[in-house]
Amino acid sequence: MTTALDTRRPGQTAEVPPPPASRRPRILQYNFLGGLTGWIWLVVVLVPIYWIVITSFKLQADYYATNPLVPSSPTLENYRFVLENHFVRYFFNSVIVTLGAVVPAIVVSFMAAYAIVRGSAGSRFLRSVNAIFLMGLAIPLQAVIIPVYLIIIKLQMYDTLGAIILPSIAFAIPLSVLVLSNFVRDIPKELFESMRMDGATEWGTLWRLALPLTRPALVTVTIYQGLQIWNGFLLPLILTQSPEQRTLPLALSAFQGQYNINIPAVLASVVLTTLPILTLYVIGRRQLLSGLTAGFGK
Amino acid sequence: MKRRNFLSLSAGAAAATGLAACGSSGPADTSKDSAGGDAASYWFLSGPPGEPIRQGAVDRFNKANAANQIKVTTFQNDTYKDKLKTALGAGQAPSMIWGWGGGGLKSYVDAGQVDDLTAWFGQNAAVKDRLFKSSFGPATIDGKIYAMPCETVQPIIMLYNKEAFEKAGVQNPPQSWAELMSLVPKFNEKGIAPFSLAGQSRWTNMMWLEFLFDRIGGPEVFNAAYAGQKDAWSNPAAIDGLTKIQELINAKGFVKGFSSVTADSNADQALLYRGKAAMMLHGSWSYGIIKADGGNFIKDGKLGFFNFPAVDGGKGDPTNTVGNAGQYLSIYSKASEHQKETAKKFFASLLDDTEQQGWIESGGVPIIQGSNSKLAASPDKDFLNAIYDIASKAGNFAQSWDQALSPTAAEALLDNISKLFQLQISPKQFADNMNQVIGK
Amino acid sequence: MTIAPPVVRTAPPAASRGARSVSVSWMAWPALFAFTVFGIVPLFGVLVLSFSSWNGLSPNIPFTGLDSWRSVLNDPDLPHALWVTFLIMALSWLAQTPISILLGVFIASHQRYRNWLAVLYFVPLLLSQAAIAITYKALLDPNFGLGAGLGWGFLQQDWLGESKLAVGVVIFVVSWQWIPFHSLIYQGGIRQIPASMYEAAEIDGAGRVRKFFSITLPQLKYTIITSSTLMVVGSLTFFDLIYVLTAGGPGDATRALAVDMYQRGFKANLMGPASVIAVILVLVGLGLALLLRRLGGRDAAESQLEGA
């Protein structure tokens, strides 16, 4: 399969609007090693996914009776079961929690990163803020969960989606600030100077200069934190109680009985959980990639 | 040594950073928030087979008692334990605490988190007397009863695949350990694993040791360790049991790769009913799983079962058994008086005929004296009667070690068991490691 | 991702530095506030608990000074857990980084089929750690898993039962989940590299391998640091996946710090020692972050206004 890669002519590849650089770097072509890795990795990725999909169409009773890699008497029973178990509500709860946490987390982290980079030379306060965030990088959630639980109860937010959102924001901040400040720091000082000459405030500079120039980092961090929150298990488990407030990862455990897991049902809910985000990704991929490659025009 | 309440501690921490002002109005009782009024809260395990039966019992109670309502929340097994522990630590536990009794219950008792029910049982002898006597063992800490036994009795038994026995030309299930060892090569020759074992789950391995210790040295061996006797794990009977299990492992008694087989996915059960393994030592709840997943295995009469065989020259009574003598409900000490009253009323209503029937249909034996009279009508009567007999006639009904011991010691035990079964440590090292956590 | 400033940094005029600090300080407040309430206050609570022997249940917390610290620091399990943590961190970095870069190069090319490949690569990222662990446990089952399905004996190993294999499985599964994300970052980084640099190198007669090592890799420096930071810091808090996959086993072969802390705190009711381990985890994370900054040639306290 890889021979196909090697016979391509340059220029054959321009199906997508060309990026800032008008010609593709030659390194991207005739890449045998990359191609080999690419196809092998595809198999590595696909085998478990293939297994997840076919197994989600099996009956629990057939699960151990059939070859794990061969589809057999497909049934929609698991999907029906999952959808009947409030899947849609869990799904929307997850969407609310993820959006509600990621957007504010990234905004405040971005502002903090900007302040730390622009101000810490002259401000002891900002230097200590930076140190505090660094300390927060590896806070193990399991260790602090009891204090967090008590605070949520004090705030009278127990068993609300907000109870998941607020700590999720807090725990997304340290890593986001670290990554974003690295990128803000890379913006040449001259650009800030010229903004200042034009009479822009720091607030204006933040949005008009720093934002466009750190877009790749913002996209990276947003995806990373979004996935962490989307798949978060412990916070929803401890900070909510009623079925109305449950999120998808908790719903997964609903298909685990007292003595066993209904594996096909779990997998059906995995498929249902993944499909919408995957669709979103397919639609938004181009924006995402242009986000990842924005920055200085070169 | 200074003692402080955790609530005030964390409030102190919040105040220290100037945040105490943010809307603190004392800890909220979670059951009041959600149910309105003063309903008793009750958390229990979700999923089949127990959830609908437990839910049914609550529904009937709520219907019959307008003034005493119960609000339930269900959790999956593992997540329940974490959720409950956090809630207890934060002083926010449900009015009724569902559990397994034993060491876990003792840790709640030591922390003053559950009420002493001895007096209540004294006043309500009728509630107490209809239950299996053995079911009170794990509910009793230092002579006082802290939990209401409920639900079903689940002894651990040996299950076997009759078809696999036929293939290997084995007539009867083994009567003694020596006979059991002699069957190992016979099954291996036919390409059938003698025993299925979900070694990854650790507690599955533990069941083997529980029986070997008992059969060789009687219940005293483990009881000494439980009671905190010095060097109890170095008892010759214990060393003998540990050695015997390693002999069985070396003889390829367990299915190849057993350390990668997991119990929660029921892969160990599948090995048995798919004929890849001949026997399996497991809790009586296996029956329900095999019935649900194993196709016609039970219907075709291929499932056999027997009590763990005697060990030649052993001191233990071969009628002894190990397992869960019941499940347990305790009352949270911080629940309101009304909630406590509701809980007690609910306890008295437990295991009515409808609930008993539910458990029987799920393949379980309710912990009620004489519940065997109801078993005859069940299609699973052979199995259920066997369980009833094992449970009611047992010379000694020991509790699973990991539930009898304190959580600290149980964790160390499971760890060392996993190493023992991997042959990473010798019986002596096992005993030395375990001696160190005695009394912790 | 890589923003290689084309402009040489020069010292800016030393104007109104103090005033500017004040005018930007407020921007750090919202993040600081949110993090203090749910991060610092609980962390402070953990620090306090590390001086207690709380069992996690009792309403009373017995403070026992340095007892928990002493018991953890003298426990041979601690060096082991640290070793496992670093082993998993280092091996998963070593496994993920080269593959991510190669895949990043591969999918950076603008070809439609590669775009679709990139979509498929992305899927593992969307699955929760618990779902991934359930999947792999099933696939690795020696009797009903992948090996049995394909009839390939070499896949029927005691994957979760042998220490070395279990560590390998954890690293493989971590890589399986996160390589797509990191190759996405690298893809962005590679597309940033100006084509003119390659053209110049070609004029000098550089081969593909040399171009990769003399242009691509150096140009990806900051991308590598970003991706490594996410990998390394992220690996400290891997918990769900290891816990569901191996529960730290077999024995203690995969018991990393986070798993050790959970088992002590939630399973063994030893909240004091568990809090000690949590504090150690936080310190390790802090140390790593500082180290990574130095590797990037930038000090934590450095700001672009420094030297002004």
From TrEMBL, chain A:
Transmembrane segments: 32-53, 90-117, 129-152, 164-184, 259-283
CDD domains listed in its UniProt record: TM_PBP2 (cd06261)
A GO cellular-component term linked to this record: plasma membrane
Membrane topology note: Multi-pass membrane protein
Keywords, alphabetical: Cell membrane, Membrane, Transmembrane, Transmembrane helix, Transport
Family from the record: Belongs to the binding-protein-dependent transport system permease family.
Designated name of the protein: Carbohydrate ABC transporter membrane protein 2, CUT1 family
Source species: Actinoplanes regularis
Species classification: Bacteria, Bacillati, Actinomycetota, Actinomycetes, Micromonosporales
Automatic annotation (TrEMBL), chain B:
Superkingdom field: Bacteria
Listed InterPro entries: Bact_solute-bd_prot1, SBP
Pfam families per the UniProt record, alphabetical: SBP_bac_1
Endpoints of the signal sequence: 1-20
Keyword Signal annotated: yes
Record has Signal as a keyword: yes
Keyword terms, alphabetized: Signal
SUPFAM superfamilies according to UniProt: Periplasmic binding protein-like II (SSF53850)
Gene3D superfamilies given in the database record: Periplasmic binding protein-like II (3.40.190.10)
Protein name: Carbohydrate ABC transporter substrate-binding protein, CUT1 family
Organism this protein belongs to: Actinoplanes regularis
TrEMBL record, chain C:
Pfam families found in the cross-reference section: BPD_transp_1 (PF00528)
Regions that span the bilayer: 26-51, 81-107, 119-139, 159-179, 220-245, 270-292
Organism superkingdom: Bacteria
Gene Ontology CC annotations of this record: plasma membrane
Residue span, ABC transmembrane type-1 domain: 82-292
Entry's localization field: Cell membrane
Membrane topology term: Multi-pass membrane protein
Name of this chain's protein: Carbohydrate ABC transporter membrane protein 1, CUT1 family
Organism: Actinoplanes regularis
